[in-house]
Design a protein that fits this description.
Number of helices: 12
Largest sheet: 8 strands, parallel, barrel
Shape: globular
Order of helices and strands: EHEHEHEHEHHEHEHEHHHH
Radius of gyration: 18 Å
CATH class: Alpha Beta
Structural class: alpha/beta
CATH superfamily: Aldolase class I
Number of strands: 8
Helix content: 40-55%
Length: 292
Amino acid sequence: MFSGSIVALVTPMDSSGEVDYASLKNLVDFHVDAGADAIVSVGTTGESATVTVEEHIKIVLKTLEFADGRIPVIAGTGANATHEAITFSKMFAGSGIAGCLSVVPYYNKPSQEGLYQHFKAISESSELPQILYNVPGRTVADMLPETVARLSEFENIVGIKDATGDLDRVRIHRELCGEDFILLSGDDFTGLDFVAAGGHGVISVTNNIAAAQMAKMIKLALAGEMDEARSINEKIMPLHKDLFVEANPIPVKWALHEMGLIADGTLRLPLTTLDAKLQPKVKQALVDAGVL
C-alpha cells in the first residue's frame, strides 16, 4: 500500500479555475490502467496551498470515489498550523483513505523540537497511518533523521517521503528507524537510486506523465533487476529534469494538457501557465520519453 510507484496527482482545473472533476476521474482511471501502486491526492502537486478547505476535502473524497477500491488513495493533510493539520486528519477518519501525507510546516521555520511536537500532536489525534514529508527546498525547515527516528516510535507514523535528494539518508533512516519504517523518495531525479539504496518506492511527479514506465521501473528495482530499471530511467530522465523547469506543478499540468489527459492546464494564482519559451523544451522531453 505504501510502496512502489505512487503518483503525486495534480488537481485539474477548468479555464475559470474551478476543479474539473471529469478530468480528475480520467486521471484516476489512467493511473489504475497504468499499474500505479497508489495515489496521493491534494499534496503539493495537487495545489494544496491554493484550494479551500472545503475543496481539499471534496477532491480527496471524489478521488476515493473514482478509485472505487481499485487503487489506494493517500490524502495530503499537511499544514503549517498544527491545528489545521489535525483537522484534516480528523476529517478523513473512516473515509476509506489509506493514510495521510503530512508535510513539514512551511514558512514559520520550526525547530527540530517544534517539528517533533507538531507531528506528535497529529499522531495522537488520529488513528490513520501518517507518512512524514520532508521537502526543505519548499518548506525551508529540514527535518533531521534524529527527529524522524523519535517520531518513528509512534505506531501510526509509518514512514517518510524524503525529497532532500540526499541518498545517504536512506541508510541513516534505516539505521535509526528500523527495517519496518517505510522510506519513499520525493525526488524524481534520484528516485531510482533511492530505491536501489534500500528505499521502498517513490511518490513522483513524473508518474503523472509516464505512469506505466514508472510502475515498471520501480517494480524492477524492488526486485533487484537494476539494469532494466536503469534503462527505463534513462529514457524518462528528460521528464525528471524538465518537469521542474518552473515550479511544480506548472510544467506537469501543461504536459498533461498537451497529452490530452486533462481538459485544461489552468493553475490558480500565484502560479501561472508554463512560460511560452519553455514549452518546446517540455514538449521535447515528452517526445524523448515516448509519451507524446
